[in-house]
Amino acid sequence: MNADKIPDIIIGRLPIYLRALQRLAEKGTQTTSSQELGEMIGISAAQIRKDISQFGEFGKQGTGYSIPFLIERLQTILKVNRVWDVIIVGMGDIGHGLARYNGFGNRGFQVTMLFDNDPDKVGQTINDLEVFSISGMTEKIKHNKVKIAIVSVPAAVAQTVTDQLVKAGVKAILNYAPIHLNVPKDVQVQHIDPATHLQRMTYYL
Amino acid sequence: MNADKIPDIIIGRLPIYLRALQRLAEKGTQTTSSQELGEMIGISAAQIRKDISQFGEFGKQGTGYSIPFLIERLQTILKVNRVWDVIIVGMGDIGHGLARYNGFGNRGFQVTMLFDNDPDKVGQTINDLEVFSISGMTEKIKHNKVKIAIVSVPAAVAQTVTDQLVKAGVKAILNYAPIHLNVPKDVQVQHIDPATHLQRMTYYL
DNA sequence: TAGATTGTTAATCGATTAACAATC
DNA sequence: TAGATTGTTAATCGATTAACAATC
Fold it and tell me: Which domains does chain B have, with CATH numbers?
């Protein structure tokens, strides 16, 4: 156990552990070891044990980790033992696909509002949610105390939209626009850019 | 300049540099410095210089880097100074959104084939491309010598589909299924899982 | 008990940063 | 020339791995 600040690189692996554990749980498995988990996800057993031990002694010598218990611990650490409201800004192809995506269930998130600037899209219903105009976004975010947003607008307006989100109180942004977003340091950003990910692999081809 | 093996973490930053440089180029800027670039993308100037210098001496003391020249160098290093064929397997919401995504242009990629197992989807046309059945996928991949695939099928079948892709000769996989994919070590995989990215941020909320 | 596996230490390995001579 | 900025070295910092005592 370690009360110091946990390195972000470790935090980044916890959701991967959690995802693998939930998969094992679905199959009905009760117990796993750092070795087995490591083989599942391509991470060394020593690293998994070291990462987990930052937060407490969750395993048992000889038998390993209780899967339901470790899931519960990781969910609590990651604060996904509850359901967070998420909004999506930008109803282009990616945003539309995300609005209809059903992969957030039981992972701690729920899409609650959709926004776009295009008058043709505003008022449409996607996955039972109405698309709102961005002009009323700040107010709606504040009113609902939304902390998490997905940005899927064109690159040209992504920073402007981000500034509005930050001003409205959003603290975590998942960015699909192919541009780096500048935010205050108390706001988290994760970048998802398919082209960037592909370019990282072509080097090895 | 360094003929040794370049660390993957450096390779992973090159596409980010490239994206920022292309953005500067679009604005007509001719020259930049490690300092300016670093401020744009939140990376230290020293690290940018060190990363770039792994591949040669591309800058000039006193003036910095020629943007068109550095773009050309990075594109060549990353092998995106050409257009790669990319196929998408799985025409659910995410796959459908990716098929219609127009963000691959001028970044080295072109979606050429779409696949799905659902008889209702096979035969449909998305973005001028016909959706093919997965049953004929291996043959089509081999025939067209496709090296890059995007996997956006449900988690339950993602590994099976991946095995087929690998057998057909695919060497780079962008995985949207929320599951770790096992592949031979000469095959690259990048994972994109929105829920995992979001969970990494909720820790800090 | 015997076997297995954790949590943790120490050693190794790798990445980042600071600083500055070289030079445009 | 004077100012600016690179490429690179050395120092620092951080992450990973190997190994094993503790113990279930």
Answer: 3-77 (1.10.10.10), 84-197 (3.40.50.720)
